[in-house]
Amino acid sequence: MCGLAGFIYPDGNCDETQSRVEVMLDTLRHRGPDDHGIWVDDQLGVAIGHCRLSILDLSHNGHQPMKSRSGNFVIGFNGEIYNHLELREKLERNNQAPSAGWLGHSDTETFLACLESWGVKKTLQSSVGMFAFALWDKTQNSLTIARDRIGEKPIYYGWQKGTFLFGSELKSLRVHPAFEGRIDWDAAGMFFRHNYIPAPSSIYCEIFKLVPGTFFQLTQNDIKHRTLPPLIPYWSLDTVAEDGLLNPFSGTLNDAVDELEKLVRQSVLLQSVADVPVGAFLSGGVDSSTVVALMQAATTSRVTTFTIGMPDHTMDESSYAAEVARYLHTNHVEHVVSSDEAIDIITKLPNIWDEPFADSSQIPTYLVSQLAKKEVTVALSGDGGDELFLGYPQYAFYDKIWDFRFLEKMPWDIAFNILKPLEKYRKFEILLRRSRSIVNAWRQPNVPALNKYWMDKYRQDRMPILGVGKPATLEFPVLPDAATTAGLWDVGTYLPDDILVKVDIAAMANSLETRAPLLDHRIVEFVYCLPPEFKFSGGVGKKVLREILYRYVPEGMVNRPKMSFSIPLGEWLKNELRAWVEHMLNQLPEDHTYLDKSVILQLWTEHLTGRRVHTDQLWGILCFLEFMNH
User: Fold this and answer.
1) Which of 3, 453, 503, 542 is the residue whose CA sits 20 to 30 A from 48?
2) DSSP letter string over 561-604?
3) Whole-angstrom distance, CA of residue 97 vs CA of residue 114
4) Could you read off the pLDDT of 297-351 as tens digits, one per residue?
């Protein structure tokens, strides 16, 4: 796990190439505090910088940017290739390993040898891992930028004032003198709808996030004309889903449990390999408990697990995590968050997330990463389980909504107009608002549209942003049932653009590497071959995953309603954070070109008085204002 940054000056030599990439790297030291390096070609105006969090091969043999043995390639690599030993063996069998032998045992050295022997696409398709990298090909004078299949590792890129910039975080691009920093208000509109910005957009004009499962090669022609080449997919989630329909799993539920357990065990074992201490996050839910159970079963040592307790007992899973930890005999570390501690983090958020991001679980995620870093350098997580195995409560709701959508044909608008006078009574106002939301859900043309509608923070409110807000552009196939279709959308958008961004940024801010065994692409491909009822049955998700866990932990210990990993933010906004909220809102000018202060103040008044709950909307607005003020 590392950070990388760099640039290309198409006009060639720049006297300040070295110093400028140094400044870019300085913004990423938290991602790689153990080592850093810079490679430049002054004649071509190319620079790649890398800061390293040493995980495999702690010696200088793992130093980056790393040159291939031929000297034809230079790479800055962020992430892990979990099957790198298998790839080494394949190279050696085919007489493609370096003739002088391997210098060390880092996965980057293996990966670079594969790139040189097999080319980019074959290497990517052969690799199991999470990664983003920049590869300079000296023979072609071209730059390749690539990202892992699911989107665990980020990379930003774009042309700014005639210079091509790239980096693991936006802050590394912002310090370059070519960076323009113009706000993309269409992207801002997407942020307000989702509380995150979907790829390929970023908050800045002409700066993009690379879409998962793709790469591109910036050729000399692209560099000369300051253009971006087309993205080249090497793995496609929608193709995986469609292939799963064409080639469904034909065995029994027990067969599926056996096969999935084998795949998850294999993934956990591969992702537990490191030359530094490895632990795991444990919430006590199905996903993290499954990962920890298989992790503990594979070793005679006690796995170290980490849990954050919440000050509000309705959001606190720490007692469940402690019970699972005791049963599995892990070395369990727990910390209960105080309101002062969590609120203190809020002031640091603009320095941690460098584009607007407003999933409030970012706060406990940061704190549990901070806790884990005190004892380990790598932590495994259960991320991806909810999206892949349909664990979110809304999936049951989508099935019910879609089954009754024929009711949309009733004269609802007439009924709502007749009942409108009753809105002055709070109880009726809530009932009518919920009823309108259901009717509008029935009116959506398909399940992806239903999912986008239901996840829209402003589906029943005026947007606080004026005249902008294009929808997310990625589309995915419609599957036979509503829950699986909605889950597919979330795996392709919400997971990489919210959940994985949250985890990567929170963990890397603490110099902690996180790994998600459930996101091994072979597991993803297997899951989409399964019949829907193996994942979601009787209104309950994760059926096949639960069956694995029951082999290690008593069913009653983990069979409980899902809880969100969150904080009592809504109440804090009205109490402990009220002064901060009102200070931020008072700074907003009445005549802002894009932000509608009257709408924002209405949302705040309704929330403050208890008339409506607008926690998600207000948190998004406040995070955006903090970003703009930073």
Assistant:
1) 503
2) ----S---HHHHHHTTTHHHHHHHHHHS-TT-SSB-HHHHHHHH
3) 9
4) 998 899 999 999 887 777 778 899 999 999 999 999 999 888 788 888 888 888 8
pLDDT per position as a tens digit, 234-249:
999 999 999 999 999 9
| Residue 17 contacts residue 25 (beta carbons within 8 Å) | no
> Mean pLDDT throughout 500-520?
97
Question: Closest Cα partner for 503 from 563, 577, 565?
Answer: 565
Three-state DSSP at 25 gives helix
Sheet holding 378-380, edge to edge: 331-336, 304-309, 278-281, 378-380, 513-515
Cα 432 to Cα 525: distance, rounded to the nearest angstrom: 42
Q: Which tokens is 535 given? A: 């994942």
Sign of CA dihedral 358, 363, 368, 373: positive
CA separation for the pair 305, 332 (Å, rounded): 5
Angle at 495 between CA 389 and CA 263, to 5 degrees: 45
Three-class SS of residue 380? strand
Strands 46-52 and 2-8: antiparallel
Buried b (16+ CB within 10 A) or exposed e, 603-618: bbebbeeeebebbbbb
Q: What is the DSSP letter of 311?
A: S
Torsion of the alpha carbons at 110, 114, 115 and 116, rounded to the nearest 10: 100
- Token pair recorded at residue 425: 């009574």
Distance separating alpha carbons of residues 583 and 573, to the nearest angstrom: 12
Q: How far is CA 40 from CA 6, 138, 252, 261, in A?
A: 9, 12, 57, 46
Set 2, 114, 529, 623: catalytic member: 2
> E-assigned strands of 227-299?
232-233, 278-281
Smallest Cα–Cα separation from 429: which of 613, 618, 616, 612?
612
Q: What single-letter amino acid sits at 493?
A: T
Nearest-angstrom CA–CA distance, 461 and 439: 15
- pTM for the full predicted model: 0.95
What is the rounded distance in angstroms from the CA atom of residue 585 to the CA atom of residue 603?
11
Annotation says 623 is catalytic = no
Q: Rg (Cα) of the chain, in Å, rounded?
A: 25
